[in-house]
């Protein structure tokens, strides 16, 4: 397979503004087609972005024999059903986070993936970002000393009534939209799964979706806390604290594509402490994701973020809702 021919389901903002541009004009893969519920919208989007084929239904794109792989950026509640259709049509599928709203449904996708012999994964682009690979290698090298704590924060402000993030039926709310990131990146860096968690959620009375959430998770080797919000000043950080040094991932999730990402290594002391700045080369994490996923198809390698990982992440996110509702620790083992 010379070039992986990708199709996109839905003219989603993330697809139009980030993922499609990041996947165009590259070796090894191309965006061949886009589908929308509206034929006019797919035509306009295709013309604006220079995409050769466009369809007025997702099903037509899924059945197109000239498409090898499908990127699924539909609302969260449609991730599993459409990814399943893609797999059943023999297509590889890269599905946006959160891949599912129920862990059991990921098992359905795993069975289908194995039956149809395709590649399938969750689009956690952070896993393909050089800054997170570096963060993982620093933590795992022991340079920080014994690691004892991880902390995360991720927030933005969005009260748009018609945004899928504020619509409960679409799988809206902060936990599904951004809580998935501190959970995923801590699992990714630590190479462990949390054993139990407790959580507080503040639900928007109008939308019925969570707008602030704080979670404490026990990992086998460390404690982790994180807070997320859909109604706070935009901010994001991740910290990994060892006995000797602390690692700060400064723009952990929405890493810019036009400037170098920085990791800050804090050497201790409260006042005037030394900060070692590690600069990563300028890169686009959505391109890196497409490179790794396309290569996985071409060379029969593991995808960057597997369905097995998605299963674990979904279990943890579900447990956050349960912990908050039942006001107790939830055991994850
Ligand atoms: N990895 C990342 O960095 C990242 C960033 C942002 C978002 N995301 C994920 O990407 C997905 C899309 O997010 P987004 O902000 O791009 O959303 P969006 O702009 O609202 O796009 C969602 C698309 O889904 C289609 N759709 C089908 N049924 C729909 C329905 N009932 N209501 C609304 N849209 C419907 C629409 O396309 P048509 O009308 O063309 O059919 C719509 O454009 C979400 O799962 C989100 O978590 C990931």
From TrEMBL:
It holds the Pfam family GFO_IDH_MocA. GO terms for molecular function: nucleotide binding; oxidoreductase activity. The keyword Oxidoreductase applies. Residues 4-120 form the Gfo/Idh/MocA-like oxidoreductase N-terminal domain. The keyword Oxidoreductase applies. Residues 132-247 form the GFO/IDH/MocA-like oxidoreductase domain. Belongs to the Gfo/Idh/MocA family. This is NAD binding oxidoreductase.
